[in-house]
Write a structure and sequence with these properties.
The chain is mostly helical and 149 residues long. The protein contains seven helices and two strands; from the N terminus they run ββααααααα. It starts with a strand and ends with a helix. Belongs to the importin beta family.
Amino acid sequence: MHFSGTRVFPLMFSPLTYWWQETLIRRTASSDDLGDASAMLIQAHGRPILRAILWGFAGVAPRSATQNLIELLSIVASKFPAETRTWMNEILFADDFVQSKATPEAKRAFVKAIIGSRSPKKTREAAQQFTLVARGLEGTSFGYASVNV
């Protein structure tokens, strides 16, 4: 798959890849022994991971991958809130962001909801809503059914 000159690999959306990324981020961020290595890891790979997550919500990933993407977003946002805010704004408002039905207002509301979220449930709700909006499914029975499956 190609999007805006960037190659998106199907492996990026496999369950094994989610598990590996989730485990790596969670354990690295929570280990005091790793110190600078944790900061180096997120600085080197955090933005590309977040970009894949946001592009996935906007339609690059199959809808079946949404729950895995939400889990990754929740971990990144809770462990690295300042970086998440910066990266989300940079990615969502970049000229090369995936074409979607999400308006600038919807994107701002999504960033605000994720950064203001204090629970995985609120993160999940905000991400599901953004996914519906970005894919043009908001207000449709198809979109409602896909969120509640």
